[in-house]
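Anyone up for a design puzzle?
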């Protein structure tokens, strides 16, 4: 605004003023801005809003203004930062400035105290660093690392290297890394020894325990939760290394090179080895064919023997059945040689006993007498056979009683166990002795063969197994010489009686007469 002109003064314009222009200036320069940035970041903006009761969930590095250094901060830097924070936020300073202060531990300054308490103690600081909320625990997916393997996985391994206590940590390397470098890298990480622990996350504090038992219980609970988290951490690290190993193109390249080298070495030996294998295969096939033919021949021979034995047994069985029927018919024709009905029933039982006990030759001889002789001669022959059979049954009972005595004593001395097999009459004993001598030791499936032989030739109708034959053979071996001699003597007497009866029957046979 111009001054008022006096009387006689003149107003004149000598020069026009330039219009004002707004420009952006840098008061001090980038150094000033860096200072302002450092000053602003040294103080946690949410510091005054922290809850002292929830101090465990706070970021202690942010509270002290060290979020940019974190686990790399030295003790000197931590103490310096703490000193600056205390000078500004101490309750006495704020109270003097007229600020309202919380009572006791309810003031946010308690969070600063807890932060310096933890970060100044190496053990507590390590526990907090292990659960650093800013640490990225993620593992790259396979899709992320397929194309840019080194760019994706190198930073991940570098940030996880902070958990090792070893000073020299191998780098992931480049695509030109040698096999030794790559192998050393994965050997280190597969045997990674992590100091990371999770005691900071303990839900219970043992210092608050009121007694020793409660403290022990808290320690037990904390150990369990730490072990679970430690296992999860080891699984995370293993998944990271496995994922990197499976996607590493260098590993594939090394494997392909190793495979090509081995194939080249193997190819040089293929021809010679192939001829050797072909020769061995021919020899083996010839041996297999020879064994097969021998087995087929043996099976065929065994089958033929079994068929012959079965056929012979069927013939024997039919012949015995036929002779038994003839005996029953002949006795029935003569009314069982009795006049009274009660005697007839008894004689029928005796005839059935003869059918069960007599062998084929004896039945045939007796049937010849009944067919050719008179009623009286037939009765005499039948009664004589009945008496002999009853006498033999009595002898068998006595022999079996005698045999049971040493068998029981032997079993008692041996501590028991094992049966004596099914009952053996004199005929079966002689047949067993004959079969044992006929099929000596070394015979293939010897005891099964002996059992089949006895089942084929025995007239007792009792089926013998290999186990029954073995038990009875061992029982005979345990007999003393007197008992063996007695058994042989009885068998010889039986043989003489049977043959003497047949001879007498033949000598006394009357010529047949024909009545027209």
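Challenge accepted. My sequence:
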């Amino acid at each position: 605004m111009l001054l008022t002109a006096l009387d006689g003064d003149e107003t004149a314009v000598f020069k026009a003023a330039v219009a004002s222009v707004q420009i952006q200036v840098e008061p001090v320069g980038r150094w000033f801005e860096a200072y302002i940035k450092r000053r602003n970041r040294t103080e946690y903006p949410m510091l005054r809003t922290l809850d002292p009761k929830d101090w465990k969930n706070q970021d202690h590095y942010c509270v002290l203004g060290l979020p940019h250094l974190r686990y790399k901060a030295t003790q000197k830097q931590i103490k310096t930062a703490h000193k600056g924070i205390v000078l500004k936020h101490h309750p006495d300073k704020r109270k003097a400035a007229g600020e309202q202060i919380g009572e006791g531990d309810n003031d946010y300054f308690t969070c600063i105290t807890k932060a310096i308490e933890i970060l100044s103690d190496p053990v507590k600081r390590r526990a907090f660093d292990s659960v650093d909320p800013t640490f990225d625990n993620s593992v790259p997916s396979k899709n992320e690392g397929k194309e840019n393997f080194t760019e994706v996985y190198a930073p991940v391994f570098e940030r996880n290297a902070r958990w090792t206590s070893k000073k020299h940590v191998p780098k992931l390397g480049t695509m030109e890394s040698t096999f030794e470098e790559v192998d050393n890298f994965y050997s280190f990480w597969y045997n990674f020894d992590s100091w990371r622990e999770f005691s900071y996350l303990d839900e219970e504090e043992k210092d608050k325990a009121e007694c020793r038992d409660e403290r022990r219980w808290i320690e037990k609970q904390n150990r369990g939760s730490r072990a679970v988290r430690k296992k999860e951490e080891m699984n995370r690290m293993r998944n990271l290394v496995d994922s990197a190993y499976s996607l590493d193109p260098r590993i594939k390249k090394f494997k392909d090179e190793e495979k090509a080298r081995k194939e080249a070495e193997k190819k040089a030996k293929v021809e010679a080895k192939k001829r050797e294998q072909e020769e061995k295969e021919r020899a083996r096939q010839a041996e297999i064919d020879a064994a097969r033919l021998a087995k087929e021949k043996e099976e065929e021979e065994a089958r033929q023997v079994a068929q012959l034995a079965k056929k012979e047994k069927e013939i024997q069985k039919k012949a015995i059945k036929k002779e038994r029927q003839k005996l029953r018919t002949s006795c029935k024709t003569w009314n069982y040689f009795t006049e009274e009905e009660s005697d007839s029933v008894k004689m029928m039982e005796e005839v059935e006993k003869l059918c069960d006990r007599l062998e084929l030759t004896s039945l045939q001889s007796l049937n010849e007498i009944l067919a050719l002789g008179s009623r009286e001669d037939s009765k005499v022959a039948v009664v004589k056979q009945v008496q002999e059979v009853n006498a033999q049954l009595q002898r068998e009972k006595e022999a079996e009683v005698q045999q049971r005595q040493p068998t029981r004593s032997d079993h008692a001395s041996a501590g028991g166990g094992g049966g004596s097999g099914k009952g053996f009459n004199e005929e079966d004993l002689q047949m067993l002795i004959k079969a044992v001598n006929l099929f000596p030791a070394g015979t293939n499936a010897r005891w099964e063969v002996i059992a089949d032989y006895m089942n084929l030739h025995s007239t007792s109708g009792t089926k013998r197994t290999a186990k029954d034959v073995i038990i009875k053979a061992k029982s005979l071996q345990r007999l003393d010489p007197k008992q063996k001699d007695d058994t042989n003597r009885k068998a010889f007497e039986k043989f003489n009686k049977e043959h003497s009866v047949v001879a007498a029957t033949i000598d006394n046979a009357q010529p047949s007469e024909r009545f027209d």
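A detail worth pointing out: The chain has a mean pLDDT of 81.
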